[in-house]
Design a protein that fits this description.
heterodimer, A: mainly beta, four-stranded antiparallel β-sheet, three-stranded antiparallel β-sheet, B: mainly alpha, Cytochrome Bc1 Complex, Chain D, domain 2, 7 strands, about 50% helix
Chain lengths: ~100, ~270
């Protein structure tokens, strides 16, 4: 499995703010190396966040997202102590899943 | 009557704005960069390096299959809090003044059985292979001193000598452009393109200059330690590449670190 994400989730009122920092090279596929050869694309394509099994965020990313992506989003309907699970899958099929407890 | 009063107020306000226009334009750039930096603070990728470093700190590695948990950075074996803001300093067991990164290599050698010369060679290939591990561990160790003030010791004769050596090196003009560190960092208020250049001959303030490294650079997605920062400064001056952890680089760090006494360290920082 890839390097772990750092996830933080805080509840304010009825809104939960989740902040995720992912470790990923996010290679666009357009860059060239020193010898002039194209560096193959390697980036996160899908990110999904679920709360109590229900999907609260789905993304479709491209090479346009920068290295070590930072994602912040809000959703309603959660309580302190609930778990939010974040999973990403990249174009090579590698994936990473981490969870956080809402503070 | 009402209309002319409003017209006069509008004219007065316009005149004021035109006068302030010039000053505002300069402030706008500085404010803009400050706002950009604040936005970057949330989710500093340096945290990913710190997480990796924490794992490596407690992992059994090397020929001796041991952890780094007994490493002494100057405040006792395993004491990390406040260690970074007192480095570089003199170490009795090695008989020399060392910075964090060279001290880490000492620990990896004595505790884990690695060969120091192999690690120095690996360190020259910055951010790859074993160097990536050392950068991660360095990030983990410095984070324990986040928010603390610099307090480099100058009690030992070798520490004082290194300060003086660092000062000489700081002002020594050389290389194909006849540059010295002081060329860019020797006076107040200098700037290259849009990058402010702190005056490093004195304390440039909290979180500035020496107090801003190690840091994650968004522009190239790398975490730069002080050794890398100095290496790149020399590259920018078109000097020959300094050896990793050389006395010259440590002396410069002592000079800047002592000058930054009581400045708050914001490590690990984030830069554009």
């Amino acid at each position: 499995m890839a390097d772990p994400m750092r996830i933080r989730a805080a509840l304010a009122g009825d809104e939960t703010t989740v902040r995720v920092l992912m470790a990923h090279i996010m290679e666009t596929g357009i860059r060239k190396d020193a010898s002039g050869a194209l560096i193959p694309a390697h980036f996160i394509q899908d990110v999904e966040a679920t709360h109590n099994g229900k999907s609260v965020l789905k993304t479709m990313w491209s090479g346009a997202v920068s290295q070590n992506p930072f994602l912040s989003f809000k959703f309603k309907g959660a309580a302190k102590g609930d778990k939010v699970v974040v999973k990403w899958v990249d174009n090579k099929g590698d994936s990473r899943t981490d969870e956080v407890t809402i503070a | 009557m009402k209309k002319s009063m409003v017209q006069r107020q509008v004219l007065a306000a316009a005149a004021l704005l035109v006068g302030m226009g010039a000053a505002l334009a300069q402030d706008a750039t500085a404010t803009g960069i400050a706002q950009y930096r604040e936005m970057l603070q949330d989710g500093n990728p340096a945290e990913l390096f710190e997480m990796k470093g924490e794992k490596l700190w407690t992992q059994n590695r090397g020929p001796k299959n041991a952890t780094l948990e007994k490493c002494d950075f100057g405040k006792g074996p395993g004491v990390l809090k406040g260690a970074f803001v007192e480095l570089p300093r003199y170490f009795a067991d090695t008989g020399r003044v060392q910075d964090l990164e060279s001290r880490l290599i000492t620990c990896m050698e004595t505790l884990q059985g690695y060969k120091a010369e192999d690690l120095y060679k690996a360190a020259a290939n910055y951010g790859k292979g074993e160097s990536a591990n050392m950068v991660a561990i360095t990030t983990y160790v410095v984070t324990a001193s986040k928010g603390m003030d610099f307090a480099l010791p100058q009690g030992n004769e070798k520490e004082k000598t290194m300060y003086e050596v660092g000062k000489r090196l700081f002002f020594a003009r050389s290389g194909p452009h006849d540059f010295a560190c002081s060329t860019c960092h020797g006076v107040d208020g200098q700037r290259i393109r849009l990058q402010e250049l702190p005056n490093l001959t004195k304390n440039p303030g909290d979180g500035v200059g020496f107090a801003a490294w190690p840091a994650y650079r968004v522009s190239n997605g790398q975490l730069w330690t002080m050794q890398k920062r100095l290496n790149d400064c020399y590259r920018q001056q078109r000097f020959p590449e300094p050896k990793f952890g050389s006395d010259a680089t440590i002396a410069l760090a002592v000079y800047m670190g002592v000058n930054s006494k009581s400045a708050e360290s914001i490590v690990p920082a984030i830069k554009r």
